[in-house]
Each structure stands twice: as C-alpha cells, then as structure tokens.
Amino acid sequence: MENNQKVQAFSEKVAKIKSELRRDVVGQTEIIDHVIIAIIAGGNVLLEGVPGVGKTRLVRSLGNVLSLPFSRIQFTPDLMPSDVTGTNIIEKDENGKLNTVFRKGPIFANLVLADEINRATPKTQSAMLEVMQEHKVTIGNDTYKLDEPFFVLATENPIEQDGTYPLPEAQMDRFVFKLIMKFPGNDELIDIVKMTQITMDETAKAVVNGEEILQMRALAATVPVIDEVLDYTARLVSGTHPEIEGANDVAKKYIKYGASPRAAQALITCAKVRALMNGNYNVSYEDINALAAPVLRHRIKINYAAVNDKLTVDDVVALLIKTTKK
Fold it and tell me: Which of 44, 76, 255, 272 is the most exposed place for a label (fewest CB within 10 A)?
C-alpha cells in the first residue's frame, strides 16, 4: 500500500473513532482529538476538570470503541501500591501444596482511568512511575509486562485541594499531555441531559482493535520531519529555560524553570500522529504549535511576574511560540 493510501486509511479510522465517541461524549472536541493522539503515540494523559464533566465516560467509551479492556482506579489516601499493581499471594493447589501466585492489580488493563491521582500518597503515586514509563510492573524479583497498547488517563480535581499530594515533577513528565476539560456550554449541557435521560450506558460500538492501534502507531513513526521543523521544536523547548545562554526573553521574564527533553520528544511523536489525522505525511510548524500548550503546560513553572501580569501558563506558551523564529 502506498503512503497516500495508508495516510487516507489512517485518517478514516480516526474519523470513525471520533464519530463513535460523539455518541457518548458531548462537545470536548479538542480533548477527544488529543486523547486519540496520545493513545496512538503511546503516551499518557493528565486530565484536569471539575466532577461530572464526563472524564470516566470518555475512557469507558474509548474502551468500547477500541475493543480494549478498561479499568478504573479510585485513588485515595489509604490506597497502597499493591492495590494498584497487584501482589503475591499464597494459594493451595489441588494436592494441598502451597504455592506463591501473583494476583494482578487493576493496572493490568489496556486503558486505565486513574481517578483523582493526586489523592494518593507519594508512595502509591511512585508505583505508577515504572508502569507509565516502561509499561511493566516489578514485584520482588519478577517483572511483568503489560499488554500493548497501554494508556493511563489520570484525573485531577482543580477545586478540592485539601488532603491531596501534588504529583512530583518526575511523574508529571510521564504525561505527554495535560488537558483541561472545561464545563460545557449551555447548548452542550442541554444535549448531555437529553442523552442521559435516554440511557446512562455508553452506546459507542467498536470500530478498531488493539492490533490496528499498534499498526497506526508504527505508521506514525515513519512520518518524516524536516530538519527545519525539528530545529524549531528544539528551540521552542530550549526557549523555556531562563538559565541557559541565549534564553528566550519570555522565559527570562516569566518562567521559573523549563521543560525537560521529554517535551521535545512528545511534541515530535504526537505531531506525527496529528499530521496523519489531518491527511498529511509530513510534520508542519502548525502541528508543533497546535500541540505546544498541552505538551508544555505541566512541564514549565511560571514565576510571580507572570502571575502579577495575569498570565496563565498557556499565555506564556503562546508568547514563546510568537517569539521563536521559524
């Protein structure tokens, strides 16, 4: 199959996924696009939003559409690492002999909703680090690989911060995107009420499977990136560091600390998927700029000067894009 046909088939599959998801999720078009990009790219997503905006519904519906097992972990202060990853237990076999058996935890699913992840203690949060980065679990001397594709969507409630444990920077860096799920508009709210009056269950049907997602990921990896776009991406990420020589003036004025090299990796990897979704077999500047905010907003820390000037992280990212030469 020629590249043009492969690109067309890719964008058609994504269109089908979006169409089915819209049967269960009202609005949130940008959120849906970015979640699909993250799954195909092999990344995880941190989703911030008030309760009731459809975060759980989105992941359950995704499980149906992608024909993948879904699990939900409600993070609480008393949750232990073994409650997430699983643990070794002793069982008797039919002969009465005692054997050690590994009982898998809820992390052993293809799609995992980590609900209110910042409510768990740092010890439990750290259990997610290896899983999210390396897609494997180590218990004692044994290592267990998770089935691919594997995707974690973690949620945070931006309002209730009492009794929460902020995610460490190392873990924040494991998320390719941080997405903000906004409260629906009036018309969307009416549509949500109408939809849920008919049924609270998800109605989306399967249109692709795990194997097809992995094939789409492999195709995305082949998308070329010209040197100029790669150089621009590197300068955009480097420009978030106020301490380096030749730093961007925006960074010097508004940024306390900048993004890690993972930000550049995430931008390029996800931009390849976005290009294919839009029917292109090359990464453009527009692909990079469109993904800069979700990739960078949880990786950079703005300073008091930005807050004093009433600028958000997204505003600072927009200024970085504007002042980084192509």
Answer: 76
- Return the residue matching tokens 């629906």: 184
Rounded (5°) CA angle 3-269-238? 135
DSSP state letter for 299: T
Nearest to 59 by CA among 178, 152, 174, 183: 152
- Contact predicate 221/272, CB 8 Å: yes
Task: Please name the residues in contact with 80: beta carbons below 8 A apart, sequence gap of 6 or more.
Answer: 123, 124
Q: Which residues pair with 179 in a beta bridge?
A: 47
User: 267, 292 in Cβ contact below 8 A?
Assistant: yes
176-193 pLDDT, tens per residue? 999 888 776 777 677 767
Mean pLDDT of 42-48: 89
Question: If pLDDT is split at 50, 70 and 90, which confidence band does 318 have?
Answer: very high
Over residues 64-84, mean pLDDT: 86
Residue 135, phi-psi category: left (phi > 0), alpha (psi -120 to 50), beta (remainder): left
8 A C-beta contact, residue 46 and residue 298: yes
Cα 159 from Cα 142, distance rounded (Å): 40
| Residues 7 and 34: beta-carbon distance below 8 Å | no
Global pTM?
A: 0.88
Closest CA to 230 of 282, 302, 189, 191: 282
116 within 8 A of 156, measured Cβ to Cβ = yes
Question: 197-235: per-residue pLDDT in tens?
Answer: 665 555 667 788 888 889 999 999 999 999 999 999 999
Query: Among residues 47, 172, 183, which one has the least CA distance to residue 115?
Result: 47
